[in-house]
């Protein structure tokens, strides 16, 4: 893992989504009205990671994703405003993906997602070019790409190209629910060659069958050189070679909306690695970004001024 500055851009490949965030208090009332505060904001795990990474001064961040023609211009403007260079493929047949985020203000701002992936997982091998790696020092892949045939093929092509150029690759498994549907037995082969894995606690435990996050991190690190398990209010674990080597505490925060907290961690962590930080220091920066993320609505940092 990096012990010096890596010269080049961070290339993020992943989902660009329109988030409809509905904050309510207490249980939903079936068959009638539940009062809520509703906002439409740009989101998507891949796009969020890119925006949080771009917050670090001096970090060049590029984003490849697929969007519908319906909101392509809006998403491009929003990404650019966060300092990201968007490299978006516009789909003329399918609209941009949409996620309805139900955020319970009485349950530590815990969220439930209703997901229509739309154009995002229609990213395919034909959308890849080896030229995308020109000037790139690190490739990050959103795990959502693993959950559709076309985007899985894209991941395989991108991984092969990155390995050929010696570009390190990280991946965030993205969704315990979708991982279960994919089949956890398929996961190791799909991510072979990845250098850094950044699962949540639930994803790590699901992938290993372990009930303890530290045990899960240790097991995963026998397959992937560096594993960073995100544990929300409990901070993060770092594991290598079958052992947990660091425990990083969370930064205290008052949650308003936990949407995108893991993406914030990942973006800040990767930007710090590129700047030469060791993984433990990078994880501290990730925890700080995660704390900032939960205190606002939506999964993106504020646009640059």
Automatic annotation (TrEMBL):
Pfam families noted in UniProt: PfkB
Residue runs in coiled coils: none
ATP-binding in keyword set: no
CDD domains, A to Z: KdgK
EC identifiers of the protein: 2.7.1.-
Superkingdom of source: Bacteria
PROSITE patterns the record matches: PFKB_KINASES_2
Region of interest (Disordered), ranges: 286-305
Domain Carbohydrate kinase PfkB positions: 10-302
Family: Belongs to the carbohydrate kinase PfkB family.
Protein name in the entry: Carbohydrate kinase family protein
Native species: Streptomyces marokkonensis
